[in-house]
Amino acid sequence: MKLLLVEDDKFHADYLKKAALEALPEVTEILHAADGREGEALARQHSIEIIVMDLQMNGRNGIDAARTIWAERPKTRILFWSNYSDEAYMRGIARIVPQDSSYGYVLKTATRERLHLALRAVLLEAQILVDQQVHKVQRQTQAHDTLTDSEYAVLIDMSLGLSDKLIAKRQGMSLRTVQNRLLSLYDKLGVDSLDAAPDDLAINKRTRAITRALNLRAINAESLESAERELQKWLHRSQS
Amino acid sequence: MKLLLVEDDKFHADYLKKAALEALPEVTEILHAADGREGEALARQHSIEIIVMDLQMNGRNGIDAARTIWAERPKTRILFWSNYSDEAYMRGIARIVPQDSSYGYVLKTATRERLHLALRAVLLEAQILVDQQVHKVQRQTQAHDTLTDSEYAVLIDMSLGLSDKLIAKRQGMSLRTVQNRLLSLYDKLGVDSLDAAPDDLAINKRTRAITRALNLRAINAESLESAERELQKWLHRSQS
DNA sequence: AACACAGTTGCGGGAACCCGCAACTGTGTT
DNA sequence: AACACAGTTGCGGGTTCCCGCAACTGTGTT
Predict the structure, then answer these.
(1) For residue A205, which of A221, A224, A182 has the smallest C-alpha distance?
(2) Which residues of chain A have a pLDDT value below 70?
(3) Inter-residue contact A4 to A69 (CB < 8 Å)
(4) What are phi and psi of A125, to 5 degrees?
(5) CA–CA dist A217, B212 (Å, integer)
(6) Which of B11, B169, B196 lies at the smallest CB-CB distance from A12?
(7) Torsion sign, CA atoms B185, B186, B187, B189
(8) Alpha-carbon torsion B170, B147, A229, B57, what sign?
(9) Residue ranges in chain B modelled with pLDDT below 50
(10) Is A55 exposed, middle or buried (0-12, 13-18, 19+ CB in 10 A)?
């Protein structure tokens, strides 16, 4: 059984490798890729079935890599292993995980035992396992300030620089509906509050919404870059 | 001689500690802080004179920490040690480094020798040392798409959600000048090009400028968060 | 002194945005 | 069947943004 590690940080890769050797004696060979693109290639060449994947990498990021890998072999088991528990990552993953595959999400700050456990549970036992910490974030964003899926979609489009009209077209809504979404976004992201705002001087809600969303970890640079690529595809498709 | 390490990643901290012990036999004691706030406190308590500082940390980030430390003791020597060579970080550092202090910038991907060298050069010899790789980024942004300082300031304000009028007020320019800055920003950031853009459907330049700037590493989430704090201060000041 | 050139400012108008008001769905409750 | 409630859409207007046009600085060149 071959295991693929996708991780661009050398130290983390070393640690991970050792942990995997301990936790998974069944593994006969460990491959290592230093970014998403390389990971995809190795997974393809070696018909890899189990992977540990970093999310934030310099080249192609982990979510994009996972998507193409899952597109080719939906049953691949992937354990995501990341520094952060941003809502943006959660959504990114939730969006692409096939229903008959198993995956997991562990933070790099997790103890060695927890990592061991996650490795075995996800990669061998095909469980779904999400780190306590991460799950909390997931819930709390679901409780208090839930962004609807459609709100999230509008947020992304808006952040990419689409006009209301264009968003409407892409999302298949009317213009006014898009604006309603934006209203509720402004509300949920807390866009109004420029604390000591001089009364007559207004703010630009759109741009403020973006930085608020970045602050709240609802979006991040990587999710925007992926979304940008999707957008380009869509543009070309809908052009013809 | 006491050395302070500010680094929230456990593995990196270990590595750094070992490297420092090897490279700096003069050091008698190594203190360790896991985020910026803690680092500031330790530096203050122990009258620290040499520091290795990570930039991206979960709590308070490295640049903010460095600023307060330098504000208290401008001669502190700080070696920044980071994963990335974003323009945003460069600007952040350039903005706060006192003229009579020495600092350095090394990437985490640097070889051990290079790290050794940087440690000695900056912390002992009080040199200014910037990693080759980083310096390249610095130059290339200075060559092709230089953002003027004032352009950068406007970009930040705009990203924080200020209206043209407010930016004008904060920057002490006329409204039209702000808009001129924005024009050149749109140009330099490449905001026009929605490749297959349907002709009649325009884009929102402001928001697109933000994501372009994020893509190009001209700004990043941390720099925006610091800027937000500055903005709040300014708002309160200018209110009275 | 004459010139080029880059940066600053005012004016004005077309387009996009923000949003209150109001009507019209659909889904689920009692 | 009656009702509540959340989501969708159109309309209209006040505001902000985007930017061409044009005048007016200042700095440096020839």
Answers:
(1) A182
(2) 136-145, 193-201, 239-240
(3) no
(4) -90, -5
(5) 18
(6) B11
(7) positive
(8) negative
(9) 142-144
(10) buried
**Strand C contacts (CB < 7 A) among A residues 130-189?**
163-165, 176, 179, 182-183, 186
Q: DSSP readout, B33-92?
A: ESSHHHHHHHHHHHT--EEEEES--SSS-HHHHHHHHHHH-TT-EEEEEES---HHHHHH
What does pTM read for this prediction? Answer: 0.85
CA atoms of B160 and B62, how far apart (whole Å): 21
Of A194, A220, A228, the CB nearest to B221: A220
Which three-class secondary structure state does DSSP give residue A79? strand
Instruction: Classify residue B156 by its DSSP letter.
Output: H
Q: What is the pLDDT of residue B84?
A: 86
Q: Residue B3's beta-bridge partner residues?
A: B30, B50
Q: What Å distances lie between residue A79 and A35, A49, A98, CA to CA?
A: 15, 11, 14
- Whether any strand C atom is under 7 angstroms from the Cβ of B182: the reply reads no
Is A31 in contact with A9 (CB distance < 8 Å)? Answer: no
Using CA coordinates, name the residue in chain A closest to B195: A232
pLDDT the model gives residue A38: 95
B211, A159: Cβ pair inside 8 Å? Answer: yes
Q: How far apart are CA A85 and CA A179, in angstroms?
A: 29
